[in-house]
């Protein structure tokens, strides 16, 4: 075995192993957000995720939102979950999900405390302390890299992203898929102009047609809203850095996908049914995009940037990398992996070998700067109006 065949992870009763063993404080309703935040603050080492929305969501929007909450509640990196909410119906939904996953949990509702948010917090802190103590007894074990599910993102890109950083992730995608693992990338509008080429790589004609359709749907959504994608995506910072059109940005962004067959086009927060390479139809704004990946079960996110982008997921360690030597030097407490050697003449495969080692080290417990500095958050996307 090579040094990149296994990582140290935490097996779960169902699903992939975690690369972290965190207590998730998951707030399920907007009315209890503040109380749940106080609870997470009082439990060092816990992870906080929340929604500010409640019973007014309907249709597909409600379905996506519930799926995202469920995906976070059962995420591989979540060793136990403390569910907090005001809406008993939603709390019961999450209880059923966590019970089916056989994950340790405690659920507390505002109605159980006479709608006293302070009392709710006190009880939750006590229950969370017990869950944290139990988690501290668990130890990681060797797991094959075929159990890894990585998500790829890019943000505040510049020409170095498309020339080196994203092709580097393409090498990682091919390596992991060939090893039996899984990869997902999203930002649907950033496939624009490449969708026909991507469709030719689809595992089935149906997947190819779906891929082209979701791009067309996003473009139609922008046009219907009167949005001119030039100046919006890429944004002003991207344009100033040298990426003038969305098609130009997309041609570099999709290089993250490597060269293997595309197995499916996932809905937002949908878990892949098989191993391999997957695309997710999702917004391109990083907070929403990353949470879609996390809710689908991705244990780690590899995030390329040209200019620097500090945003991270709370649940999935987010490994930041750049091929811009100036950015790597000026943001030394943000960039986890400096890939600028690629543009200095070092071979892509040599740098990819170093990155594989860093991925395994991170999966085995090495912290990212985002984890150390507390940059992580989760933001569930919205898909419609509320009543």
Could you walk me through the main structural features you see in this protein, from its secondary elements to its overall organization?
40% of the residues lie in helices and 17% in strands. It has 13 helices and 15 strands. The chain starts with 5 loop residues before the first strand and ends in a 10-residue tail after the last strand. Helix 5 links the parallel strand 7 (149-154) and strand 8 (182-185). It is an alpha/beta fold. This is UxaA family hydrolase.
Summarize the structure.
The protein has 387 residues and is α/β, with parallel strands linked by helices.
Strand order of the largest sheet: 9-10-8-7-11-13-14
Secondary structure: number of strands:
15
Helix content: 25-40%
Q: Element order, helices and strands?
A: EEHEHEHEHEEHEHHHHEEHEEEHEHHE
Low-confidence segments? none
The secondary-structure class comes to alpha/beta
End-to-end CA span:
56 Å
Shape: globular
The overall pLDDT average reads 94
How much is the radius of gyration in Å? Answer: 20 Å
Structure annotation, total helices: 13
- How would a crystallographer describe the biggest sheet? 7 strands, parallel
Quote the beta fraction: 15-25%
Domain D-galactarate/Altronate dehydratase second: 9-117
Keywords: Hydrolase, Lyase
Domain D-galactarate/Altronate dehydratase C-terminal: 145-379
Family: Belongs to the UxaA family.
């Amino acid at each position: 075995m090579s040094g990149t065949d296994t990582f140290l992870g935490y097996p779960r009763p169902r699903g992939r192993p975690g690369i972290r063993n965190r207590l998730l404080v998951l707030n399920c309703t907007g009315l209890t957000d503040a109380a749940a935040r106080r609870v997470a603050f009082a439990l060092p080492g816990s992870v906080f995720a929340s929604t500010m929305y409640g019973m007014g969501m309907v249709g597909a929007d409600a379905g996506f939102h519930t799926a995202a909450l469920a995906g976070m509640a059962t995420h591989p990196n979540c060793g136990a979950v403390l569910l907090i909410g005001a809406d008993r119906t939603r709390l019961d939904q999450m209880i059923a999900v966590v019970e089916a996953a056989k994950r340790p949990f405690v659920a507390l509702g505002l109605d159980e405390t006479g709608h006293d948010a302070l009392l709710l917090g006190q009880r939750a802190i006590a229950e969370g302390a017990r869950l944290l103590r139990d988690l501290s007894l668990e130890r990681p074990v060797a797991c094959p890299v075929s159990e890894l599910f990585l998500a790829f993102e890019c943000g505040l890109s510049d020409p170095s992203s498309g020339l080196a950083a994203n092709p580097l992730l393409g090498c990682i995608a091919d390596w992991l898929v060939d090893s039996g693992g899984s990869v997902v990338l999203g930002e649907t509008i950033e496939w624009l102009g490449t969708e026909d080429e991507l469709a030719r790589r689809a595992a089935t004609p149906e997947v190819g047609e779906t891929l082209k359709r979701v791009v067309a749907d996003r473009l139609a959504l922008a046009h219907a809203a009167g949005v001119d994608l030039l100046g919006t995506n890429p944004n002003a910072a991207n344009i100033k850095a040298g990426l003038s059109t969305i098609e130009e940005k997309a041609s570099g962004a999709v290089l993250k996908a490597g060269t293997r067959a595309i197995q499916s086009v996932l809905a937002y927060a949908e878990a892949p049914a098989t191993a391999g390479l997957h695309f997710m139809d999702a917004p391109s704004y990083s907070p929403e995009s990353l949470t879609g990946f996390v809710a689908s079960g991705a244990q780690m996110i590899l995030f390329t940037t040209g200019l620097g982008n500090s945003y991270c997921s709370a649940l999935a360690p987010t490994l930041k990398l750049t091929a811009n030597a100036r950015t790597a030097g000026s943001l030394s407490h943000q960039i986890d992996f400096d890939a600028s050697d690629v543009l200095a003449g070092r071979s892509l495969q040599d740098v990819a070998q170093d990155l594989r080692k860093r991925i395994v080290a991170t999966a085995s417990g090495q912290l990212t700067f985002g984890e150390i500095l507390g940059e992580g958050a989760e933001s569930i996307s919205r898909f419609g109006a509320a009543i």
